[in-house]
Amino acid sequence: MEAMTDATALIDSFTAAHAADSDEDLARALVHDAGQLADRMRAQGLTTDYKTSISDVVTEADRTAEAFVAGVLSALRPGDGLLGEEGASRASTSGRTWVIDPVDGTYNFTSGFSYYCSALALVEGDPLAPDALLFGAVHRPTPATTYFGGPGIPTTVNGEPVAPLTPRRMAETSLVTYLHPGTMNPGPVRDTWLAVAGQFATLRMFGAGSVDLSLVATGHAGAWIQRAGAVWDWWPGKALVEGAGGAARRVEAGGTAWLVAGSTAIVDEIAAAFAAVDAQ
Protein backbone atom coordinates (compact mmCIF):
# COMPACT_ATOMS: atom_id res chain seq x y z
CA MET A 1 0.00 0.00 0.00
CA GLU A 2 2.84 2.41 0.85
CA ALA A 3 4.48 1.79 -2.55
CA MET A 4 1.25 2.48 -4.41
CA THR A 5 0.71 5.67 -2.38
CA ASP A 6 4.22 6.76 -3.36
CA ALA A 7 3.43 5.99 -7.01
CA THR A 8 0.26 8.11 -6.82
CA ALA A 9 2.22 11.09 -5.52
CA LEU A 10 4.82 10.62 -8.25
CA ILE A 11 2.11 10.41 -10.92
CA ASP A 12 0.61 13.71 -9.77
CA SER A 13 3.93 15.57 -9.69
CA PHE A 14 5.16 14.07 -12.96
CA THR A 15 1.90 14.83 -14.76
CA ALA A 16 2.02 18.46 -13.67
CA ALA A 17 5.63 18.83 -14.84
CA HIS A 18 5.21 17.08 -18.20
CA ALA A 19 1.70 18.01 -19.33
CA ALA A 20 3.00 19.84 -22.41
CA ASP A 21 5.59 17.22 -23.45
CA SER A 22 5.70 15.76 -26.94
CA ASP A 23 5.33 11.99 -27.18
CA GLU A 24 9.09 11.67 -27.57
CA ASP A 25 9.96 13.82 -24.56
CA LEU A 26 7.28 12.12 -22.49
CA ALA A 27 8.66 8.66 -23.33
CA ARG A 28 12.21 9.60 -22.38
CA ALA A 29 11.13 11.14 -19.09
CA LEU A 30 8.75 8.27 -18.24
CA VAL A 31 11.22 5.49 -18.81
CA HIS A 32 13.88 7.38 -16.86
CA ASP A 33 11.68 7.99 -13.85
CA ALA A 34 10.24 4.46 -13.89
CA GLY A 35 13.74 3.01 -13.85
CA GLN A 36 14.86 5.30 -11.06
CA LEU A 37 11.74 4.47 -9.03
CA ALA A 38 12.44 0.74 -9.32
CA ASP A 39 16.07 1.32 -8.37
CA ARG A 40 15.11 3.26 -5.23
CA MET A 41 12.68 0.55 -4.19
CA ARG A 42 15.33 -2.12 -4.65
CA ALA A 43 17.69 -0.21 -2.36
CA GLN A 44 15.00 -0.25 0.33
CA GLY A 45 14.56 -4.02 0.11
CA LEU A 46 12.15 -6.14 -1.93
CA THR A 47 10.29 -9.42 -1.73
CA THR A 48 10.53 -11.59 -4.84
CA ASP A 49 7.54 -13.53 -6.16
CA TYR A 50 7.67 -16.23 -8.82
CA LYS A 51 5.55 -16.42 -11.96
CA THR A 52 6.23 -19.38 -14.26
CA SER A 53 9.62 -20.58 -12.96
CA ILE A 54 12.42 -19.93 -10.48
CA SER A 55 13.98 -17.47 -12.96
CA ASP A 56 10.69 -15.77 -13.97
CA VAL A 57 10.34 -13.35 -11.09
CA VAL A 58 8.42 -10.20 -10.21
CA THR A 59 8.75 -7.68 -7.38
CA GLU A 60 6.74 -4.81 -5.96
CA ALA A 61 9.15 -2.53 -7.84
CA ASP A 62 7.98 -4.01 -11.17
CA ARG A 63 4.35 -3.48 -10.24
CA THR A 64 4.82 0.02 -8.82
CA ALA A 65 6.93 1.24 -11.75
CA GLU A 66 4.30 -0.05 -14.19
CA ALA A 67 1.51 1.58 -12.17
CA PHE A 68 3.44 4.86 -12.34
CA VAL A 69 3.82 4.71 -16.13
CA ALA A 70 0.22 3.60 -16.65
CA GLY A 71 -1.08 6.31 -14.33
CA VAL A 72 0.81 9.07 -16.14
CA LEU A 73 -0.32 7.85 -19.56
CA SER A 74 -3.93 7.56 -18.38
CA ALA A 75 -3.76 11.22 -17.39
CA LEU A 76 -1.75 12.64 -20.30
CA ARG A 77 -2.68 10.28 -23.17
CA PRO A 78 -6.19 9.08 -22.22
CA GLY A 79 -7.06 7.86 -25.71
CA ASP A 80 -3.98 5.69 -26.08
CA GLY A 81 -4.00 2.01 -25.20
CA LEU A 82 -1.75 0.33 -22.63
CA LEU A 83 -0.14 -3.10 -22.61
CA GLY A 84 2.21 -3.89 -19.73
CA GLU A 85 4.09 -6.97 -18.61
CA GLU A 86 2.64 -6.79 -15.11
CA GLY A 87 -0.97 -6.50 -16.24
CA ALA A 88 -1.58 -2.89 -17.27
CA SER A 89 -4.15 -3.05 -20.04
CA ARG A 90 -6.43 -0.54 -21.73
CA ALA A 91 -7.98 -0.64 -25.19
CA SER A 92 -6.98 2.21 -27.49
CA THR A 93 -9.42 4.72 -28.92
CA SER A 94 -6.67 6.69 -30.68
CA GLY A 95 -5.22 3.76 -32.62
CA ARG A 96 -2.00 3.91 -30.58
CA THR A 97 -0.77 1.75 -27.71
CA TRP A 98 2.09 2.13 -25.24
CA VAL A 99 3.84 -1.18 -24.56
CA ILE A 100 5.51 -1.21 -21.13
CA ASP A 101 8.18 -3.33 -19.46
CA PRO A 102 8.76 -1.68 -16.08
CA VAL A 103 11.80 -3.81 -15.22
CA ASP A 104 13.36 -5.93 -17.96
CA GLY A 105 15.86 -8.34 -16.45
CA THR A 106 14.10 -8.72 -13.10
CA TYR A 107 16.20 -11.74 -12.13
CA ASN A 108 19.33 -9.60 -12.55
CA PHE A 109 17.59 -6.75 -10.73
CA THR A 110 16.84 -8.91 -7.68
CA SER A 111 20.36 -10.36 -7.73
CA GLY A 112 22.11 -6.99 -7.49
CA PHE A 113 23.39 -7.20 -11.09
CA SER A 114 23.07 -3.89 -12.98
CA TYR A 115 22.08 -5.52 -16.29
CA TYR A 116 18.42 -4.46 -16.26
CA CYS A 117 16.33 -1.56 -17.52
CA SER A 118 12.91 0.00 -17.86
CA ALA A 119 11.56 -0.02 -21.40
CA LEU A 120 8.57 1.11 -23.42
CA ALA A 121 7.46 1.50 -27.02
CA LEU A 122 4.68 3.33 -28.83
CA VAL A 123 2.93 1.50 -31.67
CA GLU A 124 0.03 2.12 -34.05
CA GLY A 125 -2.57 -0.60 -34.54
CA ASP A 126 -2.74 -3.95 -32.79
CA PRO A 127 0.08 -3.94 -30.20
CA LEU A 128 0.77 -7.63 -30.86
CA ALA A 129 1.10 -7.05 -34.64
CA PRO A 130 1.27 -3.28 -35.13
CA ASP A 131 0.92 -1.37 -38.37
CA ALA A 132 3.79 0.87 -37.27
CA LEU A 133 6.41 0.89 -34.54
CA LEU A 134 6.85 4.59 -33.77
CA PHE A 135 9.69 4.55 -31.24
CA GLY A 136 11.24 2.80 -28.29
CA ALA A 137 12.82 4.09 -25.08
CA VAL A 138 15.09 2.24 -22.65
CA HIS A 139 16.62 3.48 -19.40
CA ARG A 140 19.37 1.73 -17.44
CA PRO A 141 19.66 3.18 -13.92
CA THR A 142 23.24 1.86 -13.67
CA PRO A 143 24.87 3.38 -15.63
CA ALA A 144 22.45 6.32 -15.86
CA THR A 145 21.76 5.88 -19.57
CA THR A 146 18.65 6.54 -21.65
CA TYR A 147 18.33 5.20 -25.20
CA PHE A 148 15.70 6.52 -27.60
CA GLY A 149 14.92 6.01 -31.27
CA GLY A 150 12.82 4.33 -33.89
CA PRO A 151 12.22 3.92 -37.61
CA GLY A 152 12.72 7.44 -38.93
CA ILE A 153 14.01 8.68 -35.55
CA PRO A 154 17.81 8.39 -35.26
CA THR A 155 18.76 6.55 -32.09
CA THR A 156 20.36 8.58 -29.31
CA VAL A 157 22.06 7.81 -26.00
CA ASN A 158 21.44 10.51 -23.38
CA GLY A 159 20.50 12.79 -26.26
CA GLU A 160 23.65 12.15 -28.31
CA PRO A 161 23.24 10.41 -31.70
CA VAL A 162 24.79 6.98 -32.16
CA ALA A 163 26.86 6.10 -35.20
CA PRO A 164 24.98 4.17 -37.89
CA LEU A 165 25.55 0.43 -37.64
CA THR A 166 28.31 -0.90 -39.87
CA PRO A 167 28.23 -4.30 -41.57
CA ARG A 168 30.07 -7.07 -39.71
CA ARG A 169 30.11 -10.78 -40.37
CA MET A 170 29.01 -13.35 -37.80
CA ALA A 171 32.49 -14.84 -37.52
CA GLU A 172 33.97 -11.43 -36.74
CA THR A 173 31.68 -10.14 -34.00
CA SER A 174 29.79 -10.90 -30.79
CA LEU A 175 26.30 -12.27 -30.31
CA VAL A 176 24.11 -11.36 -27.34
CA THR A 177 21.52 -14.06 -26.93
CA TYR A 178 19.40 -16.06 -24.53
CA LEU A 179 17.98 -19.56 -24.41
CA HIS A 180 15.88 -20.66 -21.45
CA PRO A 181 17.28 -23.62 -19.50
CA GLY A 182 14.09 -25.52 -20.24
CA THR A 183 15.07 -25.67 -23.91
CA MET A 184 18.70 -26.66 -23.31
CA ASN A 185 17.99 -30.38 -23.69
CA PRO A 186 18.83 -31.93 -27.08
CA GLY A 187 16.11 -31.17 -29.60
CA PRO A 188 15.25 -28.96 -32.59
CA VAL A 189 15.22 -25.67 -30.67
CA ARG A 190 18.55 -26.13 -28.90
CA ASP A 191 20.23 -27.73 -31.91
CA THR A 192 19.11 -24.92 -34.23
CA TRP A 193 20.28 -22.27 -31.78
CA LEU A 194 23.67 -23.95 -31.31
CA ALA A 195 24.21 -24.30 -35.06
CA VAL A 196 23.67 -20.57 -35.63
CA ALA A 197 25.11 -19.10 -32.42
CA GLY A 198 28.25 -21.20 -32.83
CA GLN A 199 29.13 -19.27 -36.00
CA PHE A 200 29.85 -16.07 -34.04
CA ALA A 201 33.25 -15.01 -32.73
CA THR A 202 31.95 -14.95 -29.14
CA LEU A 203 28.69 -15.17 -27.19
CA ARG A 204 27.22 -13.17 -24.32
CA MET A 205 24.09 -14.21 -22.39
CA PHE A 206 22.80 -11.81 -19.71
CA GLY A 207 19.01 -12.17 -19.64
CA ALA A 208 17.60 -8.72 -20.45
CA GLY A 209 16.50 -8.40 -24.06
CA SER A 210 16.01 -4.62 -24.15
CA VAL A 211 19.48 -4.06 -22.69
CA ASP A 212 20.91 -6.51 -25.22
CA LEU A 213 19.25 -4.65 -28.08
CA SER A 214 20.48 -1.30 -26.74
CA LEU A 215 24.02 -2.65 -27.01
CA VAL A 216 23.36 -3.80 -30.57
CA ALA A 217 21.95 -0.37 -31.46
CA THR A 218 25.09 1.35 -30.16
CA GLY A 219 27.45 -1.09 -31.86
CA HIS A 220 28.78 -2.56 -28.61
CA ALA A 221 27.43 -5.96 -29.64
CA GLY A 222 27.27 -7.27 -33.17
CA ALA A 223 23.90 -9.02 -33.21
CA TRP A 224 21.08 -10.44 -31.10
CA ILE A 225 19.13 -13.68 -31.35
CA GLN A 226 16.38 -14.85 -29.04
CA ARG A 227 13.46 -17.21 -29.30
CA ALA A 228 10.31 -15.15 -29.95
CA GLY A 229 8.50 -14.06 -26.81
CA ALA A 230 6.54 -11.15 -25.37
CA VAL A 231 6.24 -7.93 -27.37
CA TRP A 232 7.45 -5.78 -24.44
CA ASP A 233 10.78 -7.59 -24.73
CA TRP A 234 10.94 -6.85 -28.47
CA TRP A 235 9.37 -3.57 -29.61
CA PRO A 236 11.49 -1.13 -27.52
CA GLY A 237 14.85 -2.58 -28.57
CA LYS A 238 13.72 -3.29 -32.14
CA ALA A 239 12.94 0.41 -32.48
CA LEU A 240 16.42 1.37 -31.23
CA VAL A 241 18.18 -0.96 -33.67
CA GLU A 242 16.12 0.32 -36.60
CA GLY A 243 16.78 3.90 -35.53
CA ALA A 244 20.50 3.13 -35.75
CA GLY A 245 20.13 1.99 -39.36
CA GLY A 246 19.93 -1.70 -38.53
CA ALA A 247 17.37 -4.41 -39.09
CA ALA A 248 15.25 -6.43 -36.67
CA ARG A 249 13.01 -9.21 -37.82
CA ARG A 250 11.39 -12.56 -37.12
CA VAL A 251 12.79 -15.78 -38.61
CA GLU A 252 11.20 -19.25 -38.57
CA ALA A 253 13.55 -22.20 -38.03
CA GLY A 254 13.78 -25.39 -36.00
CA GLY A 255 10.04 -25.51 -35.55
CA THR A 256 9.90 -22.17 -33.74
CA ALA A 257 10.23 -18.41 -34.30
CA TRP A 258 13.38 -16.43 -33.58
CA LEU A 259 13.90 -12.69 -33.21
CA VAL A 260 17.05 -11.38 -34.88
CA ALA A 261 18.64 -7.91 -34.83
CA GLY A 262 21.82 -6.21 -36.00
CA SER A 263 23.08 -4.48 -39.11
CA THR A 264 21.08 -5.29 -42.24
CA ALA A 265 23.96 -7.37 -43.57
CA ILE A 266 24.38 -9.49 -40.45
CA VAL A 267 20.63 -10.05 -40.10
CA ASP A 268 20.59 -11.34 -43.69
CA GLU A 269 23.53 -13.61 -42.85
CA ILE A 270 21.80 -14.92 -39.72
CA ALA A 271 18.57 -15.57 -41.62
CA ALA A 272 20.54 -17.52 -44.23
CA ALA A 273 22.24 -19.51 -41.46
CA PHE A 274 18.87 -20.45 -39.96
CA ALA A 275 17.58 -21.44 -43.40
CA ALA A 276 20.64 -23.62 -43.97
CA VAL A 277 20.06 -25.44 -40.68
CA ASP A 278 16.43 -26.05 -41.59
CA ALA A 279 17.46 -27.40 -44.99
CA GLN A 280 19.73 -30.09 -43.52
TrEMBL record:
What's a Pfam family in this record?
Inositol_P
The alphabetized UniProt keywords are: Hydrolase, Magnesium, Metal-binding
Q: Which GO terms describe its biological process?
A: inositol metabolic process; signal transduction
Its needed co-factors are: Mg(2+)
An example of a GO molecular function for this protein is:
inositol monophosphate 1-phosphatase activity
- InterPro entries annotated for this entry? Inositol_monoP_metal-BS, Inositol_monophosphatase-like
Q: Where does Mg(2+) bind?
A: 85, 101, 104, 233
Classification via PANTHER family: INOSITOL MONOPHOSPHATASE, INOSITOL-1-MONOPHOSPHATASE-RELATED
What is the official name of this protein in its record?
Answer: Inositol monophosphatase/fructose-1,6-bisphosphatase family protein
Report the source organism. Corynebacterium uterequi
